[in-house]
Amino acid sequence: MSSNTPVNPAPAVDYFTPEQLVAPGTFFPQKEGEVAPKIFQPLKIRGLTLPNRLGVSPMCQYSANSKFEATPYHLIHYGQLSLRGPGIIIVEATSVSEVGGLSPQDLAIYNDEQAKSFKPIVDFAHSQGGLIAIQIAHGGRKASGQPLYVHLEQTADESVGGWPDKIVAPSAIPFREHGNLHTPRALTIPEIKTIVKEFGEAAKRAVEISGFDAVEIHGAHGYLISEFLSSTSNKRTDEYGGSFENRIKFLLEVIDSVRSNIPESVPLFLRFSASENSDVEGAWNIEDSIKLSKIVIEKGVDLLDVSSGGNSSAQVSRKSLVRSNVPAHLPFSKAIKEAVGDKALVSCVEGLHNKPEEVNQYLEDGLFDLALAGRGFLRNPGLVWEFADKLGVRVHQARQYQWGFYPAREQIQELIKRTEELKVKA
Asked: Are 153 and 232 in contact (CB under 8 A)?
């Protein structure tokens, strides 16, 4: 082959970055017949095919500008992750409403300009062969809080850009009695209908303007949807409160709104807390979650993103949930996967970043379908490479990173040749 082989530019952006011949993080067999460990086997979700089963969990970065738009910080943060081959990146909780942000520094997507601010991030991820989703949310009684690096549980007042008098929830119940978060105002039914519509409009912008590959509804951790689900935070006596069927009504309407505003080919994820991790009477539990899971699947949810806690100040710590070094959420993910079977995909999050052999075995055993890591990727953006190394296999790297990694130069030349031949045939 000639040494003057052309390097084609990636088609997704208007500046030069080399076209990725194979998505980073894709299994790269070293000998004929080599089978990838389960974590490096592709995962199909509706119209997407993930190159592997290790994804980046959504993590708030508290770095939005005063208009709640993404900034160069987010481009760098998510961009450097996309270079290293996770199966999918899920962008942090992004508010669908003007008063739904978790803090004055959180991202939002309730207008077109905010949606446009994500496009450079999405385009860059696509230029590197990556997949990227967005998590859309409403903070409910936890809205207008302080960033994690300021205070874990304190309302942001007007002096720092907060909106304490506009915090809303299913019922006027504070997260913690005599705590530092404001008591919310109970939503009216017309306001609930407005928020349902806002979720759908946000999803539409995320796909049509920003270009995200998938949408995740945030229904966990004590935010608005989670508050509606639990009778500890939902004391309503109308159609949105009381019975299990009434308490899940808001979520089901949100799912309908989102699903109807995105193409059939776009996957829909739902993150929810499988348990409040609390013994308080009426607290949401795993039995409720199993029942809910079967219902939302019929509504068009493709992946159940299982977490726990966040809605009760009386919850036990996550550390106390861990038994025999088993990840805290594994029992929940396992129970839900057993209940739904092949009707939906299930993910597991937390505690999955430092034991590749165990995570792969959980996948092999069918306890869940996708491993999501948060802090693991913050500590080590090359977590996918580390997993591959520890499992004794190779994965494709971004072409810019061919500095003694895999594949080798000679193999890259062969990939270029095959790619050019396929283009000619097409």
From this structure: no
Helix (H, G, I), strand (E, B) or coil at 273: strand
pLDDT score of 319: 54
Record the tokens describing residue 390, joined without a space: 């520890």
* CA 283-180-194 angle, 5° bins: 65
Q: How deeply is 164 buried, as exposed, middle or buried, from its count of CB atoms within 10 A (0-12, 13-18, 19+)? A: middle
Task: Please tell me the distance from the alpha carbon of residue 131 to that of residue 418, in angstroms, as a whole number.
Answer: 23
Q: Give one DSSP letter per residue of 341-398, joined into a string.
A: GGGSEEEEESS-SS-HHHHHHHHHTTS-SEEEESHHHHH-TTHHHHHHHHTT--B---
- Other C-beta atoms within 10 Å of 109: how many? 32
249-259 and 286-298 are packed helices; what angle lies between their axes, rounded to 10 degrees?
A: 30
**Per-residue pLDDT tens digits for 350-360:** 766 678 999 99
Tell me, what DSSP letter sits at residue 206? I
| CA 209 – CA 65 distance, rounded (Å) | 19
What is the reported pTM? 0.93
